[in-house]
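README, section 4: Worked example with a bound small molecule

Sections 1 through 3 covered apo chains. Here we extend the same pipeline to holo records, where the ligand is supplied as SMILES alongside the sequence. The molecule in this example is zinc ion. Nothing else about the input changes; the structure line simply encodes the ligand pose together with the chain.
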Amino acid sequence: MKILLMLPLFLFFSCQHAMLVNKGINKARTTMLSDECDGFKFYFQKNSLGDSARPFIKKQLIKYKQEILTIMAEKTFTPGIEAFFYSSKEQMNQALDTKAEGISFASKKVIAFVFSRQFSSLTRHEISHILSKNLWGASEIWIEEGFATLTDEDMQKQNFHQQCKALIGTPDFIDAYELFNHFNSFGGNWNRYVEAASILKFIKDAYGNDGLKEIWKKKRLQLKNKSEKQLLKEWMSVLENTCN
Ligand SMILES: [Zn+2]
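The generated complex, written as structure tokens:
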């Protein structure tokens, strides 16, 4: 009975959210300053820091897109991507009905960032979502988030194996079953991204891009000749041998 009541409510709110997002994007398309270059259409608020940093932002996004394609071993992504830049988290949240600091809408090929003097969410993460979901299709949330996080590893002080190793034996370490099946119930917890990225880093290093794609398509940690249990054991052994 509870589920029967919750489903229409969920559909109502997600439908309303989608309408607000569409409205926000359409409004931004007509009110913000736009600029096209190398497969991107950029949108900036008038007199914003983003607007004055156009050359830097454009260069970064084009570079990031190319780097993600290299990580994915894909040659090209031809559909255009629209990138919106807001001066504050509040302004972006209000415009796109989100609490996030950076966001992507893969089917629309739309990304949005906060770009201010205090904070910039301009990383590879959101672009990764657009490229991976459109080129490889949808996967499980922990795999999609883990991969997007992994593409930004060079921005981290420590690599994801090192960060993950530091969590083992502490209450912050998330059990793999929980990570795979309840990723979103750890809202706001950065460790879930660290662990997911570490697992995918292990797969990519040990089984290459084919291994990564196999897991992506299967939507679970499993390869044709390796079970989930075996892969988790191998991952743990990699972490044990990781130097801090
Ligand atoms: Zn993400």
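What to look for in the output: The mean pLDDT is 93. The chain is about 55% helix and 10% strand.

Section 5 describes how to batch many such records.
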